[in-house]
Write a structure and sequence with these properties.
The protein is of the alpha/beta class. About 40% of the residues lie in helices and about 10% in strands. The chain is built from 20 helices and 16 strands. The strands form five sheets. A five-stranded mixed beta sheet has the order 2-1-3-12-4.
């Protein structure tokens, strides 16, 4: 890998320049949200989005006030399809593409978006995604530098979904189980883990010492969700070996942690962990969200989550609240970090992409852009995240105060359907601070706020830019083979001794060396750009 200092000195062969405003004659500002689109031709739109809450469902149309508002305001019939992110989602999208049924607007993860762009499935966005056509999107959520650095293959065919700049990733453990086991056997001396050995001791006790006291051998230490694909970052073994972020800059070198030579340490630790029989046996096939269901059913006591309210007392969909509701036990979860000096991730960057179908008519694109920008503004954001004003929340100055009882009755008890609408053009848990608003939940306790502040304070490393494969390089083929080798070592081989050999093949035959040299150059260019900006300002 090339040193960043050397790379920063290199000239960049070409720079992607995005049009900030495009051809003025082509610019039509998005609907401001005032009034409706009466008088416009009625259009049928079809969108496909990723939703993290796998149990969320849209209600009967008569109860879906978001759909009703959008269809009336913009004079459309909107068919919204949704699935949990992962391989099944990409497979469904690929099937639709192959059948010529490309959604007008669709979401996709970064790796898959590269292949879609190479295959020219999405439309060019230059004419559509501009500050003139989408003023809310550019004012509140994405700046020009982030948009520029998000592009790949020297084309403008993807844009980032508004993302949460505050991060709350953490591992959690059932403290009530720890307390119960210590009471039953004081010699155990279990504690909320602060290092790897303490974590292992808790995982073993949760598996073999009947923490729920039901007299059955039906609990496990930790659960995760690999979705039948790649080893997830759910496991503390990543942070133990200082490889938790997907990418890191270490001693001036760019490192892809999933393919680093030190991955052998993570694999070795995971093989040992699995051999201890303390891991939920369904972890590899669990789809996103199913690992939380295992915890909520009282089947596992350690998990990883990224939501701020993952273990809040009264949030209807929090793991703690649902565990209490399902098991009837006084479950209490607390965060833990076995290596606080190691980063748990990198500072927030744009994540998943949204794209426009290359088959969509200009009329459908224009109307879709208008709706998306309305969702990015205050009116659409509040409706899709907190419900109806005066019914589910009220505004007190810049504070948005939710009525928990009304929210539960109309939203949570109707499939938590705002988790779907809140995912259409942001995330359900995203902070409204970019809109100048503050979310207030009367049911949020001081304990909840302390937990949020604790996990918000975990260490993150700086990457500084989204990364894109050098045009012509097949990132998806590299990742597919990488995950195949990881899983082969984990499940089929007796040890991790073959990892260096597999890695060498990945770096040569599957172009890993070229891919990551390209990534390193992008990080160096971003660093150089940032240093220049700071010097000039």
């Amino acid at each position: 890998m090339k040193k960043l200092k050397q790379l920063a000195a290199l000239s960049i062969a070409s720079a992607l320049v995005l049009s900030a405003c495009g051809n003025k004659e082509d610019e039509k500002p998005a609907d401001s949200g005032n009034g409706t689109n009466n008088g416009k031709e009625k259009l049928s739109l079809n969108w496909l989005v990723m939703v993290g809450n796998s149990s969320a469902q849209l209600p009967d149309k008569s109860k879906d006030f978001v759909l009703k508002t959008i269809e009336e305001k913009f004079n459309v019939t909107l068919k919204l399809d949704y699935m949990s992110p992962g391989t099944d989602y990409v497979s469904k999208l690929n099937t639709r593409v192959a059948g010529g049924d490309i959604p007008d607007i669709f979401q996709i993860d970064g790796t898959a978006s590269n292949k879609f762009i190479l295959d020219k499935i999405p439309a060019d966005m230059t004419k559509w995604v501009t500050s003139a056509k989408m003023p809310n999107y550019f004012k509140y959520w994405i700046n020009d530098v982030e948009m520029q650095r998000y592009q790949i293959q020297n084309v403008f065919m993807r844009a980032p979904i508004p993302f949460n700049r505050e991060q709350f990733a953490s591992h959690y453990v059932r403290k009530d189980w720890i307390d119960a086991l210590n009471k039953k056997d004081p010699n155990l001396k279990l504690k909320v883990p602060t290092n790897y050995e303490e974590y292992l001791a808790v995982a073993k006790a949760f598996t073999f010492n009947d923490p729920d006291g039901n007299g059955k051998n039906d609990t496990f230490g930790i659960t995760a969700a690999a979705n039948g694909n790649a080893i997830p970052r759910d496991f503390p073994e990543w942070i133990k070996n200082n490889l938790a972020p997907g990418f890191i800059i270490e001693n001036g070198q760019f490192i892809d942690t999933a393919s680093d030579i030190r991955l052998s340490n993570v694999l070795s630790d995971l093989k040992a962990l699995i051999n201890l029989k303390v891991v939920d046996p369904d972890w590899f096939l669990n789809k996103p969200g199913q690992q939380f269901e295992k915890v909520q059913q009282g089947k596992a006591g350690i998990f990883y989550a990224t939501a701020r309210d993952a273990v809040f007392e009264n949030t209807p969909n929090s793991v703690q609240k649902k565990t209490r509701d399902v098991t009837g036990q006084p479950a209490e979860f607390v965060p833990f970090n076995i290596a606080p000096n190691n980063p748990i991730g990198y500072e927030a960057l744009p994540g998943n992409a949204w794209m426009i179908s290359s088959k969509a008519s200009e009329a459908k694109i224009q109307r879709s852009i208008e709706i998306l920008d309305w969702l990015a503004g205050e009116e659409g954001f509040l409706l899709t995240h907190y419900g109806q004003a005066g019914v589910h929340y009220k505004k007190e100055g810049n504070k948005v105060v939710v009525d928990p009882a009304a929210y539960k009755k109309d939203i949570t008890d109707n499939g938590s359907f705002l988790d779907i609408w809140g995912s259409v053009f942001s995330a359900p848990t995203i902070s409204p601070s970019k809109l100048g608003l503050e979310y207030v939940n009367p049911n949020e306790t001081e304990r909840d706020r302390q937990i949020a502040n604790t996990v918000k304070g975990y260490k993150y490393t700086l990457l500084g830019t989204n990364l894109a494969p050098i045009p012509g390089m097949d990132l998806s083929a590299f990742r597919k083979q990488l995950y195949s080798y990881q899983n082969k070592i984990l499940f089929e081989e007796k040890d991790v001794s073959n990892w260096p050999k597999y890695r060498e093949e990945l770096m040569t035959k599957y172009q890993g060396k070229g891919l990551f040299e390209g990534y390193a150059a992008q990080v160096a260019a971003a660093l150089k750009q940032d240093l220049k900006f700071k010097a000039e300002n």
